[in-house]
Design brief:
Length: 271
């Protein structure tokens, strides 16, 4: 059961980072497909704004799914999130470009990114809780580390597939349909993750928590968000800064620099 939990918990996180990496690497193509008419720099900025809008949805997704997972279980939250992630990925893979459906195309692209960001916001916390709560005594750090391993592996896979497509296809074929291939592959992963998550049990700790809560004569009062911010401001600020610094450094290196090299230095992405 623990192996299934590890695979089912990390597959959604891997899909999230795979999609984010591929979209970032293909931003110049997305700009041309969905934001034509403007100069290349403006179109690229619009593509990056669409990329970044997912990050605006992530805190809300983390809040909503965090509360949902604490009240209804990690398993139910993870099943919903993998379905949402697959839907968002499918939209990016199949939405026609601006030439086909006009302004509806970038609108649907934004919707897809919002769905991805919202689901991704709750994915890491809920999946990490599932892994840690299933871990045997003394091995919580090891089991929790699979989340970070899945991120790195998915990012590397996204880069490898992007390079393979750029090398194998002509620029015309890549711009016409090749850039969509990784997102179609992501759709195929979604049902697998959904099936695996639907088949795992709820975490033992959460089941014990529900049993203890049901046995209480007087229901315990839930801690509010206001109390969290009032009682732990330093911890929250420190956590925010640590995550923000690492995330910014990652996306500058993995997303911005390849596009900068392609647009400003005129280097091929495959270089």
């Amino acid at each position: 059961m623990r192996r299934r939990v590890v695979v089912s918990s990390t597959i959604g996180n891997a899909l999230e980072w795979f999609d984010f990496t591929v979209y970032g690497l293909f931003a110049t193509v997305v700009a041309a497909q969905y934001f034509p008419g403007a100069d290349p720099s403006t179109a690229l900025l619009k593509a990056f704004a669409t990329f970044g809008i997912a990050f605006a949805a992530r805190p809300l997704g983390g809040l909503v799914f965090g509360l949902y997972a604490d009240r209804h279980g990690r398993k139910r939250a993870l099943v919903v999130m993998i379905a949402m992630m697959a839907i968002g990925t499918g939209l990016i893979g199949f939405v026609p470009n601006h030439a086909a459906i006009g302004v509806v195309a970038p609108f649907l692209l934004v919707v897809a990114r919002l769905i991805q960001g919202f689901s991704a916001g709750g994915e890491f916390g809920s999946a990490s809780a599932m892994l840690i709560e299933f871990a045997p005594s003394g091995r919580r750090g090891f089991y929790g580390a699979f989340q970070m391993v899945s991120q790195l592996a998915a990012g590397a896979l996204g880069v490898a597939i992007a390079l393979a497509l750029k090398s194998a296809l002509t620029p015309e074929d890549f711009a016409r349909w090749g850039w969509r291939v990784p997102f179609v592959l992501g759709i195929l992963i979604g049902p697998i993750g959904y099936y695996l998550r639907a088949k795992v049990d709820e975490s033992p700790e959460f089941r014990d928590y529900l049993a203890a809560r049901a046995a209480e004569a007087t229901p315990r009062r839930r801690t509010t968000l206001g109390e969290l911010f009032a009682n732990h401001p330093r911890e929250l600020i420190a956590s925010f800064c640590l995550i923000a610094a690492g995330t910014a450094a990652n996306y500058v290196g993995a997303v911005f620099m390849p596009n900068f090299a392609a647009t400003e230095l005129k280097l091929p992405i495959s270089a």
